[in-house]
């Protein structure tokens, strides 16, 4: 099997969690996905999970992993592929501006259309992953704040 590269932007940036899920996975480098934003979505309030949504001018910082076929099977199971998350081929850029085609898990509809706040446990795992990889956490907190506003807006829409 040829080398397979995976872009992680949420809980799979957490080195401890990835060691457990995919012991053979190797961190390659930090990369960014341009024209997307980090968002929290899902089926149940308070149980939102990370996804990326298209948004011109935004970017999502993350980790590029080199994975094996066994790793990918484990990730497919963890991500609820193909029903909850789908896989997309995308271009990421490293710090030097070099682009690489990799794959990413993106949440499927209708789940991606439902803003949902992440649990404290899940959010803490993501923040730890950002710190593990020396990526500033402000984009995560901005995504949480935006999700809170979206959830509030949704509630107001239905309680009028």
TrEMBL record:
One Pfam family per UniProt: GGACT
SUPFAM superfamilies: Gamma-glutamyl cyclotransferase-like
Binding site residues for substrate: 6-11, 122
Record carries keyword Glycoprotein: no
Superkingdom of origin: Bacteria
Residue ranges of domain Gamma-glutamylcyclotransferase AIG2-like in the record: 6-113
Swiss-Prot/TrEMBL keywords: Lyase, Transferase
GO molecular function, one term: gamma-glutamylcyclotransferase activity
Coiled-coil stretches noted in the UniProt entry, renumbered to this chain: none
Positions annotated as active site in the UniProt record: 79 (proton acceptor)
Keyword Transferase tagged: yes
Protein name: Gamma-glutamylcyclotransferase
Organism of derivation: Blautia faecicola
Lineage, top ranks: Bacteria, Bacillati, Bacillota, Clostridia, Lachnospirales
């Amino acid at each position: 099997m040829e080398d397979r590269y995976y872009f992680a932007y949420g809980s799979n940036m957490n080195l401890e969690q990835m060691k457990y899920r995919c012991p053979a996975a190797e961190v390659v480098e930090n990369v960014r996905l341009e024209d997307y934003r980090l968002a929290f979505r899902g089926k149940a309030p308070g149980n939102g999970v990370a996804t990326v949504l298209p948004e011109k001018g935004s970017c999502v910082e993350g980790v590029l992993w080199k994975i094996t076929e066994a790793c990918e099977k484990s990730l497919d199971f963890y991500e609820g592929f193909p029903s909850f998350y789908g896989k997309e081929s995308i271009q990421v850029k490293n710090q030097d501006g070099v682009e690489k085609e990799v794959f990413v898990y993106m949440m499927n509809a209708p789940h991606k259309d439902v803003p949902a706040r992440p649990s404290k446990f899940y959010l803490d795992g993501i923040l730890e992953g950002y710190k593990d990889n020396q990526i500033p956490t402000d984009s995560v907190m901005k995504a949480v704040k935006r999700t809170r506003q979206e959830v509030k807006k949704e509630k107001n829409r239905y309680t009028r």
